[in-house]
Design brief:
Glutaredoxin, Glutathione S-transferase Yfyf (Class Pi), Chain A, domain 2, 2 domains, 4-stranded mixed sheet
């Protein structure tokens, strides 16, 4: 199998997702650390990898860098079909993608470092304002997802059915980073149950932020 390289950071929710998927597929990648706190993502060399200045980026030898965690997860699912991370049926795939996209596109982008930097330098936020902002958008996103998971027949032991899908990887990545920031959301019992189940899997446990190179003591 190809010798992958993964541009990563210990705290990155999106990098967490790729770590989980690689582990589930039995793949490995050499990690190259991009320190988001030090601004490495805005350096000239990394901008050649991803002009947006965002991680993760997965390097497949001889190919252009793969960016965006959802695209990387689907690529990995296609090249190593077992275990399947997307359901076999079209409606199931659409539901899983809907859950994953809601987290990746509607919740996560509001709490990333570049948003914090803008709000605390140009937007007039202090750190207390930033924490209120994070808590607001984590809460909105997860409580909306809780309502879906609690009501929809497709929910099983996991977000969809009885096995891990991309939806579970996205969900657990958001919760893992919330814990780094010591933020919690109340009244999400279905989410709490699913995340606890996911974290019994070695792939999820190995991807935990505080277990990564460069992480501070938990």
């Amino acid at each position: 199998m190809a010798a992958y390289q993964l541009y990563a950071f210990w705290r990155s929710s999106a990098t967490y997702r790729v770590r989980v998927a690689l582990a589930l597929k039995g793949l490995t990648a050499e990690e190259r650390i991009i320190d988001l706190d030090a601004g490495d993502q805005r350096g000239e060399e990394f901008l050649k990898i991803n002009p947006l200045g965002a991680i993760p980026a997965l390097i497949v030898p001889g190919q252009a860098p793969l960016t965006q965690s959802l695209a990387i997860l689907e690529y990995l699912d296609e090249i190593v079909p077992d275990p399947r991370l997307l359901p076999a049926d079209p409606l199931g795939r659409a539901r899983v993608r809907s859950i994953a996209a809601g987290l990746a596109a509607d919740t996560h982008p509001l709490v990333v470092p570049r948003v914090r930097q803008y709000l605390t330098t140009t937007g007039g936020f202090d750190l207390a304002d930033w924490r209120v902002w994070q808590t607001q958008w984590f809460t909105v996103g997860l409580q909306a997802l809780e309502a879906r998971l609690a009501a929809e027949a497709g929910t099983g032991a996991y977000c969809h059915g009885e096995s891990v899908t991309i939806a579970d990887i996205l969900l657990t990545s958001v919760v893992a980073v919330m814990r780094v920031f010591k933020i919690s959301v109340a009244d999400i019992p279905t989410i709490d149950r699913i995340v606890a189940l996911c974290e019994t899997h070695e792939a999820f446990a190995r991807a935990a932020p505080f277990k990564q190179p460069g992480a501070p003591a938990a």
